[in-house]
Design goal:
- There is one protein chain.
- This protein is mostly helical and 62 residues long.
- Helices cover 63% and strands 0% of the residues.
- The chain contains 3 helices and no strands.
Amino acid sequence: MHSGKSEDYENVMGKLCEFGLRKGMRVLDERTAPLRRWLDELPARARFILVLVDIVSIPQSS
């Protein structure tokens, strides 16, 4: 399960990879380090809840 929102971390990072950015690029690593540390520190249960909250908050099309 993952979010379909274009501004979510996983989708932004995926797009950056498509553009050729990779782990090991100093500026990218420095800029993403705080969020990556925060994600690593979250317990698995909290990560799952964040995904569920994100999915539930997606507006339903009519």
